[in-house]
Design goal:
The complex is a heterodimer. Chain A is built from four helices and five strands. By secondary structure, chain A is an alpha/beta fold. Chain A has a single domain, classed as Transcription Regulator spoIIAA. A five-stranded mixed β-sheet of chain A has the order 1-2-3-4-5, with helices on both faces. In chain A, helix 1 runs parallel beside helix 2. The model of chain A has no long low-confidence stretch (mean pLDDT 96). Chain B is α+β, with helices and mostly antiparallel strands. Chain B has a single domain, classed as Histidine kinase-like ATPase, C-terminal domain (Heat Shock Protein 90). Chain B is 29% helix and 26% strand. Chain B is built from four helices and six strands. In chain B, helix 2 packs antiparallel against helix 3 and helix 3 packs across helix 4. The radius of gyration of chain B is 16 Å and the shape is globular. Chain B starts with 5 loop residues before the first helix and ends with a strand. In chain B, 37% of the residues are buried. The chains are: A alpha/beta, B alpha+beta. Chains A and B meet through helix 1, helix 2 and helix 3 of A and helix 2, helix 3 and helix 4 of B.
Chain lengths: 112, 171
């Protein structure tokens, strides 16, 4: 599972690559949160290269979004492929964390 | 589906996946890496079935959720955890059977997390349960007696086996 962080203005962008399954979330969750939460900046997560998502990945995203919201920051996800979107919709993650199609939509969401 | 017997439990080590008469048979150990090992065996079994990619993903999600739950929770405080997986294809679905010698766990009685109301109050545990339930049908659970010859062996904290059968529709 790959993870890259960059800045888009005052927003942190995270690009994830691979499988958000139990083994990978175990390995990366601390680093994911550590690179986002302390800064307290709004963030967008590019899911376009994520090929698999399971419940531990959902949990990681909710936990991080919640922690950011305590600082007044927002988290938005974008670019999910169909199987990943299927899991997102089945768990209703998109009802509490915005999930949009494009990076520009995600930026617009977290900038408001 | 061949149920676990004492030879399977004594083996306790992953074996190469087998496909016998169109049925997948996998034996997994108690580490998290067992999930990936099993997933690859499952993928090899599913490939020739030409299933819709959404169905394949749903089967993988169910597999991931069930095996991860057993490894993380079912095998806590015990040694010699073993998971036997089998799968076969029906005309309208794929049937997965997962048998393990861990702590009793009946998915059908597990509480589903309440629907999300807000980010602040969202419960983050147990999210695999709605995924398994919504992606499958005809879920059947049994708590079986210990496999013959296995009682008292391997330092097990639990007596007996869980046997869960789920079917994933082809459409």
């Amino acid at each position: 599972m790959g993870m890259q962080f960059s800045a888009v203005g005052n927003i942190t962008k995270v690009e994830l690559d691979g499988r958000l399954d139990s083994v990978n979330v175990d390995r990366m969750e601390t680093l994911f949160a550590a690179n986002l939460v302390p800064a307290g900046k709004s963030a967008i997560v590019d899911l376009s290269q994520v090929v698999f998502l399971a419940s531990l990945g959902i949990r990681m995203l909710i936990s991080t979004a919640r922690a950011l919201s305590r600082s007044g920051a927002k988290l938005a996800l974008f670019g999910a492929i169909a199987p990943v979107m299927d899991v997102i919709e089945t768990t209703a993650l998109n009802e509490i964390v915005p999930v949009v199609r494009t990076e520009s939509e995600a930026i617009a969401l977290v900038s408001t | 589906m061949t149920s676990m017997d004492h030879r399977t439990l004594r083996a306790g080590r992953p074996r190469q996946p087998e496909i016998v008469d169109g049925e997948l048979r996998l034996l997994l150990g108690s580490e998290l890496t067992a999930i990936e090992y099993g997933r690859l065996g499952l993928a090899r079994f599913l490939a020739p079935l030409a299933l819709d990619s959404r169905v394949v993903n749903r089967i993988e999600v169910i597999f991931e959720e069930l095996i991860a739950n057993i490894v993380r929770h079912g095998f806590k405080d015990m040694t010699g955890g073993v998971i036997a997986v089998s799968a076969f294809a029906k005309p309208d679905g794929i049937v997965l059977t997962i048998e393990d010698n861990g702590a009793p766990f009946n998915l059908l009685e597990a509480e589903e997390p309440a629907p999300f109301e807000s980010l602040a109050t969202a419960r983050i545990g147990g999210l695999g349960i709605p995924l398994i339930r919504r992606y499958s049908r005809n879920i059947h659970y049994e708590r079986l007696k210990p496999a013959p010859g296995a009682a008292g062996e391997l330092g097990q904290a639990h007596s007996g086996r869980n046997r869960l059968v789920v079917e994933v529709p082809r459409r």
